[in-house]
Amino acid sequence: MPTPTAASRDLQREFSLLRQELQADLQRLTARLDKLENRFDGRLQLPTANLATAHSSDASPRSGDSPSENEMKIDVQNTDLSMVQLSMVVNNGFPPSQPEIEEPQDEQDGLVPFEESAWSFPLVVGLAPAGPCDVTFAIILLLLNLGMQVAFSVIILDENFIGSPFTDHIDNARRTRTSIAHDYTHMDLAKTSLVSRVCSEDGALILSTPQANLIQQINSFLSLGLDQFQPGFFQVGSLLSMLCILLWSLCVYKEYRSIWLTSEAVWRIPRSKCTLFRDNEFHTISTGRLKILLFTYVARAAIASLLLGAGIRWLAQTTSISELMLNAVSLNAILDVDEFLFAGFTPISIQLAVRTLEPLKMKYSRRRSQLETWSLFVLLVGTITLPYFVLLNPLGEQMVQVKHELCAGNQTFVVGRSTETQMTVGLVTRHPQEASELTVTELAVEEHKFNGPNEVPYLINFMETDVHFYEALGRDMAAEVKNWGLCIEKEVLMLGVFFYQDPLITPYSDLMLRQAATSLGTADVSRGCAGLKHLCNDPNARLLRMVCGHTCGCTDPLASAWHKVTAQGCIAACSQIAFDAAAATCQDNIDSENWEVFWNSYPDVMTAFWGNNVTESAVYPVMLSVADAMKSSGCSALMDPQWQAEPGVNHRWCEGYPPLWRPLAWQCPESCGCKDITPLPAYCPSRCAATSNETR
């Protein structure tokens, strides 16, 4: 019958293999014993003459010697002694004093265990005492493991997962800097530009947060300060990235080594038509099973190679220090999918079969070990140097370029474009380090942020509707002044006037006074307008001149004419008081002190008005000549044709210039020719009309 015949053939084959193994073991044991005896023989070859002389002298009869002592003559040449006896003779009858020293062996035995992994299923499927369901589910888990690792590899290699190259950030930084970073609409209440806030890692940003996060990552990665653009030798991010790349590479190299050792051990199993598996040990392996195992090992190696390259590339493009370690751990989890499936889903019968597999025996020579050591050393050095010079060093240079494009140079300015004039105008902003002091608007928010809805605001003028709100934002000073029909200081703030302590107007006037003082850098309004008089001639004191028109000279015809116009804050009602006082006479009448102040401040006023330093202009010498002539000659200089007009705006001094100064004809009506002009111009005092008629 065929079944007993097949069983008998298996038994014969098994006995033959056991006999061959026993013979091989005996041969190895005999060879080692022969080498051991030869080594002792070489150590015990002593000169025969010396031994004979020594033993003959010992063997000469002496008086008192017993016959047994004479029989102890030893002829080394004719006596066949065992190794131990001969050793005792050499040591005068004592055992050897030195321990046996074995020479290093050329080969070493090792054991290659099988991994508790889904990749080990092909070893035991069909051999383990498992049912069809267990075997089928194990095959499904093996395919699932293969599919998951291949899918992870494809995903990591995909460009959408890796992301765009870091070089794209260079162009993005350049466009951000030129398009929105200096836009005046993105300036905050502290008057700092958006680019300054981004580059200072401002945590209160709600715009350009990707750029701010990128700058923060670059500074952390390269260990740069806020104003540094050249990294030093020590770079935290580069070092951590190298460690993560090395960690990930070691994980893959561990996989490589496991694949190589296991495949080599399996390859050395004797092959036959049928796999002989007994007592949890492979004695022979079939060609079909061997091919399946080799396919799985090749698949493992291919997946590990893909993951190695993709993982190194991914880690080298990770600029966030906090994400580097997480990415490295995530990559390692992909390699452990096979172990997770084995530990969590593998049927018990398959698990036990894999765990109880006997390790395969392997022999390793010293030459192979040395060669492997050198190979591993070269691999370790390459793993450290290649990613650094190929990936990390260029990444660091690209990071420096990104920061240079976004943060280098001047950050403290914003620009805007006027659609009416078609001009691009700029404004110098504050550096974030200078923004420790609150601006007027920030101070207004700080003062009112915890107030209730019914509390009186300290610096904020609240509007009832959004229409009034946006209208107030769009008004200039001339339009704001036109809303007032009375001179605030003389008719509201002074003691005893009609609107003094008016419940509606007075709180609003006090609010404007506080706003005016705060905008000029002081918060002390305890003395009212008198305590702020020294600030009246400041070009930015428009609101102060509006509230304190009398103190600031809007009602005085002899005061310095600079800024005494509605565009600079003087209310028309205050200016009318000054005009009426000037109309009382038609004679030149100047206050020498105010006249000197007017012409001494001439260059500074024009510089503030134009927004450019006029001292660098070709017109500056002409300005100095005009000022010198006016200070030396007084009103009479206005009669000279070369001094009659301001050279910058080409407007006559006598007529005034509504954006900047009121007519000097109020102080110098005679020199301005008001007596000789008919009909009388509006800038001339009304008294001159009567004088002109009397003269006629």
Describe it for me?
The protein has 696 residues and is mainly alpha-helical. It folds into two domains: 110-437, no CATH class; 457-695, no CATH class. Helix content is 53%, strand content 5%. It contains 27 helices and nine strands. The chain has helices spanning 2-43, 48-59, 67-70, 83-90, 121-124, 132-157, 159-162, 168-179, 194-199, 209-222, 236-267, 287-316, 321-335, 337-345, 348-355, 366-407, 440-448, 466-474, 477-482, 488-493, 505-519, 542-547, 572-582, 592-600, 602-610, 620-633, 687-695; strands at 107-112, 271-272, 276-278, 281-286, 360-365, 413-417, 424-428, 645-646, 651-652. Strands 2-4-3 form a three-stranded mixed beta sheet. It has a two-stranded antiparallel sheet with strand order 1-5. α8 runs parallel beside α16 and α11 (236-267) packs antiparallel against α16. The longest helix is centred in the first third of the chain and has 42 residues, at 2-43. It is rod-shaped, with a radius of gyration of 52 Å.
